[in-house]
Amino acid sequence: MNAAGLSERPSEHASSEPARPPGRVAHLTSVHPPHDPRLSKQCMSLLAAGWDVCLVAQEGRTAIPGLRHLTIPMESSRLRRTFLSSWRVLRQALASGAKICHFHDPELVPVGMVLSLLGRKVVYDVHEDVPLQILNKKWLSPWLRRPMAMLTGSAEWLATRLFFAGVVAATPPIAKRFPARTTVTVQNFPEIVASAPAPTAQTLRQRPDRAIYIGSINENRGLREIIRAVHLSNNSATSLILCGQFTDPALEAECRALPAWKRVDFRGWQTSDQVLQALSEAKVGLVTLGPIPNYIESYPIKLFEYMAMGIPVVASDFPLWRSIVEDAGSGLLVDPLNPQEIAEAMDWLMSHPEDAAQMGVNGQRAVADTYNWPGEAAKLLALYDRFTD
């Protein structure tokens, strides 16, 4: 007998056959690359829980064992991506045989509605506050932005209440826009890097005076100000490791023309292992995104990746980010539009290795205790469990 007084003898219905997978799910995107961190973490967590997982995404790199990747061609035109790629995603979603379709782009809201009408359980993964994002789209005429934002918000409101079985929101403020009974907040926190001890003051002294930025590079990510801050540093040895891809060739040309570009080690897109290696070479992690509404209420994964590796951060002084960085004691806050402030924060951390090392320890502890993926994955799996009852 066990502690609860129940017999430990197997039920007469027990079988030696392996348990059946809980079901098949397709993750869908026409925008994100197949190696996108949020998609990859979700797919890996579902695979580990026994789900049969398929990824419908652009052609490209993915190295997740057991993941089926159904590809769609990459489109450079926004118009072709919105219509042609959406049609291709729909076809591949149906070809996957999945009963649950989990999509990651607002452009795919109509696709999700069609899949719902065809009997699929549809989940909308909301990475950004899309109406707020539209208000800052420079490629849209100013007089079109507000009507487009209102139209998009109305479409999301209708679809999530009448068509979609679930909503996965990347942050609590985003979640507030959707029905509470079908919405879960799954924040984009990093995996815990258990094998990465926080650098000590001694190891920080041994590293070159390098800051690092990882992630996508677009108009509002603050790269101009970062490169100018490198130029303004009181330490002529200060340099920048830059891991990511420019989304705008004109912005890349502008950054390359700045005087401090010669002190930038531009590595382009990097694998996860290469990013970890780059982080181990830096003294400071930079996350100085511009003060647009969509970023102010976001959780940038690079902030938590720096913290997970025990690197002190220089972050934009937004209220939400201040609550994270100050509470953890993991870095310094700056005006992201002020290169001089960024330069002074970098200089201070590089010249105070004991304090910087303690901030790194604090940040790593905060990630281990709170800001980590396993806790978020549990919420995602709980949502999926609703669909198997």
Give structural notes.
This protein is 43% helix and 16% strand. The protein is an alpha/beta fold and 389 residues long. β12 (313-316), α13 and β13 (331-334) form a beta-alpha-beta unit. The protein is built from 16 helices and 13 strands.
List the helices and strands and how they pair.
Blueprint: E1 24-28, H1 37-48, E2 52-58, E3 68-72, H2 78-96, E4 100-103, H3 109-117, E5 121-126, H4 130-134, H5 142-162, E6 166-169, H6 172-175, E7 183-185, H7 201-206, E8 210-214, H8 223-232, E9 239-243, H9 249-256, E10 264-268, H10 272-279, E11 284-287, H11 293-296, H12 301-308, E12 313-316, H13 319-328, E13 331-334, H14 339-351, H15 353-369, H16 373-386
Helix pairs in contact: 1-16, 2-3, 8-14, 12-15
- The CATH topology of the largest domain corresponds to Rossmann fold
Form type: globular
User: Which secondary-structure class do the elements indicate?
Assistant: alpha/beta
Query: How many strands, what sense, and barrel or not for the largest sheet?
Result: 7 strands, parallel
Helix residue percentage: 40-55%
Order of helices and strands: EHEEHEHEHHEHEHEHEHEHEHHEHEHHH
Q: How much of the residues is beta strand, in percent?
A: 15-25%
CATH class of the largest domain: Alpha Beta
